[in-house]
Write a structure and sequence with these properties.
317 residues; alpha+beta; single chain; two-stranded antiparallel sheet; binds fe (ii) ion
Length: 317
């Protein structure tokens, strides 16, 4: 166990601790020489770091994602805490504890997974049931599904985040069916369960959260499409139009080309899936910004690059 976590750091404190070096960039100083702008992360959060000439050579040999032992001091700069680095060196990954670095869910993931299971069991269409069974009988894949985050940074960026996000999408789907009765519930539930299945392989989450190489090369929409298409092939007589609709829902769930979808939603279930997916990711960002700033005097969050706005944080007058 670490003894210092990002969350507990205070201005004036000395730091002697292991973090993940989550970002590094080396910059030239105006008058010659170089300095490094860094970011250190553990399970409790991230903090900026700054390193001057004397450590730049040590930083040159490090990569983002390395575990590093940092000695430095905590300062306040522009209303934010940062670590001024005195020395930094790489630590072998096998000398670190995964629990120190991976953010965990606030809720019981097994419980959330059981809720997904109960939605799965409500699917009556035999082909969709067979398809879901093919995924859920794959123990290795399900173990990964239960651990995977839903994002590296943006939303549900913690172990089990994919399960929580998927469960929320299913809860929303269930409610929306009571408003738009024309919805094909089986299709919406199946696509809801599988829409982000590609995230199982989009990220690495053994000791730190990051994109995997397939994640960077293909992304979860394409990976998910492939996983679903492959399994459909194994099911005899899977109807062609059902296959097409389900695959379209995976491809279009981000809704817009600029949000990574190669197709815009072209029918009711696809449109609804996109909006509930979008709603859950954005609602989670708003909730976690409030939580992060709880007890602080702040009225507004920092600018959120994904939502492209600051978030109002006060809950009371
Ligand atoms: Fe997605
Ligand atoms: Fe999603």
């Amino acid at each position: 166990m670490k003894s210092q976590y990002v969350e507990g750091l205070e201005s004036g404190q000395t730091v002697k601790e292991v973090f993940v070096l989550s970002r590094r960039s080396i910059k030239d100083k105006k008058g010659g020489g170089a300095y490094a702008v860094l970011e250190f992360t553990d399970r409790s959060g991230s903090i900026e770091g700054i390193a001057w000439d004397n450590t730049v050579d040590d930083i040159n040999v490090l990569s983002a994602g390395d575990f590093v032992f940092v000695v430095g001091n905590v300062n306040e700069y522009n209303d934010r805490l940062q670590i001024v680095v005195n020395s930094i060196k790489r630590v072998p990954e096998n000398e670190t504890e995964p629990e120190d670095f991976l953010p965990q869910a606030d809720e019981d993931i097994n419980h959330a997974f059981e809720e997904i299971e109960s939605f799965r069991k409500q699917v009556k269409d035999t082909h969709l049931r067979q398809l879901l069974d093919a995924f859920f009988d794959d123990k290795e894949l399900i173990e990964k599904f239960k651990r995977a985050p839903a994002a590296k940074r943006v939303h549900h960026a913690y172990l089990g985040g994919l399960v929580v996000h998927t469960r929320n999408v299913l809860r929303l789907a269930d409610k929306i069916k009571t408003v738009y009765e024309a919805l094909n519930r089986d299709l919406l539930i199946t696509a809801g369960i599988l829409h982000d299945i590609g995230k199982v392989y989009e990220y690495i989450y053994a000791r730190r959260l990051d994109f995997s190489t397939p994640g960077r090369m293909l992304g979860h929409i394409v990976i998910g499409y492939e996983l679903v298409a492959e399994r459909i092939k194994q099911i005899p007589d899977f109807p062609g139009s059902l296959r097409l609709r389900l695959l379209h829902m995976i491809l279009s769930h981000h809704g817009e080309y600029e949000w990574g979808s190669p197709k815009q939603p072209k029918f009711l279930e696809a449109l609804v899936l996109h909006f509930i997916d979008n709603l859950d990711s954005k609602a989670e960002i708003m909730m976690s910004e409030r939580k992060k700033n709880k007890g602080m005097e702040k009225e507004w969050s920092d600018y959120h690059p994904y939502l492209e706005r600051e978030i109002y944080l006060r809950e009371e007058d």
